[in-house]
Amino acid sequence: MSELLDSLQRQALGFSQDWFGAEWGSNLYVLVRTLVLIACVVAPLMGAVAYLTLWERKRIGWMQIRLGPNRVGPLGLLQPIADGIKLFLKEIIVPSGSNKALFVLAPVAAITPALAAWAVIPFAPEVVIADINAGLLYLAAMTSLGVYGVIIAGWASNSKYAFLGAMRSAAQIIAYEIAMGFALVVVLMVSGSLNLSEIVHAQNRGAFAQAGASFLSWNWLPLLPMMLVYFIAGVAETNRSPFDVVEGESEIVAGHMVEYSGMAFALFFLAEYANMILISTLTAIMFFGGWAAPLGFAPFTWIPPFGWLLIKVFIIVSMFLWFRATFPRYRYDQIMRLGWKVFIPVTLVWLVFIAAWMQSPLNIFTPGVR
Amino acid sequence: MNFETVVFYLFASILVIAALRVITARNPVHSALFLVLAFFTSSAIWLLLRAEFLAIALVLVYVGAVMVLFLFVVMMLDINLDRLRQGFWSYLPLGATVGLLIVVEMVLIIMRHFGDAGEAPQTGAAQASNTRELGRVLYTDYVFPFELAAVVLLVAMIAAIALTMRKRKDTKYQKASTQLRAKRAERVRLVSMPAEKQD
Does A261 touch chain B (CB under 8 A)? Predict the structure, then answer.
């Protein structure tokens, strides 16, 4: 299989160089190859997003002793497709008082960073679009761009509700980004690398991993407060319940999305769910050993690495839905208090604690071992 | 013309146009968004120079945080364009003088080093990961200037907060700690009442 792929790549490179000359040919080949790889990641991701919406409705239905969608197809399995067709066919209404260019730009600005972040995610050993050394930094940069979609949408709509949603979102995302950044710094410290593949490898070294119980050597145990802070801040960053004051149906209708319809709305929706899966994947990669199996013996080693990542991401992303069905919405001042007065001090203290731990003779982390 | 040169000129022209639009756009929100585009494009140019840390840090800090706050403020301002334009001619001489001075100073500094920069340094460490290399240099050779800069920034931040903080006596707010300390017994009184007979 991999030999076939290799020979195919060599042939494509040779073909491209024959037609466009050595330098332009190889550059064009890299461009086309990257585009193909992006399609290979984005297409299944969009499928996952579609079926995540179904899973969300089903699961919340079960938690509330309802059936959930069950009319379209067996068990309602074709529901996301029906929703997609419906959104495609709907008219995109542009309010007459809106700023037209920015109104159209906003959904694009929302979904672009949500998809761009996937470029550095390792799905299995060596399976990653761009195995760059500054992967974690790149991820932080991309997730910090997501707020533009919301702010531009809120302003361009020229509507009070949309604007209130945008203001809330900007304040909330900036507050939680700091705590998230510190959590990433601690992960970086114990892994000694910004490369996500290296972060996964670093978690699967050590005494427990050699004894076959690698789940004990993953970052979630020594960095437990960081894991909680990162995940909860991730829920807040994606504007999911209980931090969904940005949309707050009962107060400001749908926040920044209130004036959007059809596919323009669908792009915000896709971006939100893609971000949920992204945060879950990152939690799995940075704290739960990525693609590695939790135990190193028989039935656990049968599942391939990508399968393990998939299982972990599924469990974590289901937590988002569980939260939504369980918790009432936070009050706005409580959100700000949690972000600024609880999470940031917790991360700062744990940062210093881990740093001291790593300098002490009791150090269990092995950063930078290659 | 090789591939990288073409890409450079593409980014450079986008950067110049975006920078021009920052000062010529009528709407301040558009200006701020063009500034975002300018930052983003210059980060792309840095990536062409293989300065990945600087490029990503520019996006992370300026695009991801500073410009969000800028937009936040600019969107809430009620800007009257006519009133802004009234003083244009009276401010022009002063503005032009300051601008000219800045240009002259920059020319004096830059022109001496302008021209052929020669081959880019291709050291092994920079090729491997310039983030790691920068971190190592910052925290070993330049640790004191680095810490000093951090302290200056911290002082500036605290000063900005202290200068603008205004304690309001009349605001009502809840204290989360007292709310959390509330006991059931303080809030709920269970009363047992005998059922009345109904005949």
Answer: no
SS3 A127: strand
Q: Which of A317, A170, A189 is nearest to A255 (CA)?
A: A170
> Tokens standing for A176?
């939680």
Label residues B54-68 b or e (16+ Cβ within 10 Å = b).
Answer: ebbbbbbebbbbebb
Residue from the list A134, A141, A167 with its beta carbon closest to the beta carbon of B64 = A141
Pick the residue of A27, A191, A337, A344 with the most B CBs within 10 A to test the interface with B by mutation: A27
State the complex-level ipTM.
0.81
Place of tokens 């802004």: B84
Name the nearest CA neighbour of A47 among A289, A304, A285, A273.
A273
| pTM for this model (two decimals) | 0.84
Q: Which residue among B3, B68, B129 places its CB closest to the CB of A151?
A: B68
> How far apart are the C-alpha atoms of A165 and A244, rounded to whole Å?
10
At a CB cut-off of 8 Å and minimum separation 6, what does B14 contact? B37, B41
Instruction: Say if A336 is an interface residue toward chain B (CB within 8 Å).
Output: no
Measured from the Cβ of residue A178, the count of other Cβ atoms closer than 10 Å reads 17
Residue B131 to residue A137, Cβ atoms within 8 A: yes
- Cβ B53–A144 below 8 Å, yes or no? no
CA pair distance A203, A214, nearest whole angstrom? 8
Both tokens assigned to A293: 């199996």
Per the DSSP assignment, residues forming a β-bridge with A127 are A124
What does the pLDDT profile of chain B (199 residues) look like in tens digits?
777 888 889 999 999 999 999 888 888 888 889 999 999 999 999 888 888 888 888 998 888 888 888 888 888 777 666 776 777 788 888 989 999 999 999 888 877 766 666 665 555 544 567 777 888 888 888 999 999 999 999 999 999 999 988 887 787 777 878 888 888 888 888 888 888 887 7
CA distance B5 to A115: 28
Token duo for residue B15: 């950067």
- State the Cα–Cα distance between residues B70 and B38, nearest whole angstrom: 15
How many inter-chain contacts (A to B, CB under 8 Å) are there?
73
Using alpha carbons, select from A113, A234, A107, A228 the residue that is nearest to residue A172. A234
Residues in chain B with CB shorter than 8 Å from the CB of A145 are: 59, 63-64
- Residue B15 CA to residue B37 CA, distance in Å, equals 8
Interchain proximity B173–A333, CB inside 8 Å: yes
Q: What is d(CA B8, CA A110) in angstroms, rounded to the nearest whole number?
A: 27
Beta carbons of A140 and B3 less than 8 Å apart: no
> In this structure, are residues A236 and A168 in contact, taking their beta carbons and an 8 Å threshold?
no
* Residue from the list B71, B72, B131 with its beta carbon closest to the beta carbon of A134: B131
Taking CB atoms and an 8 Å limit, are B63 and A147 in contact across chains? no
CB contact under 8 A, B60 and A144: yes
Contact state of B71 with A137 under an 8 Å Cβ cutoff: no
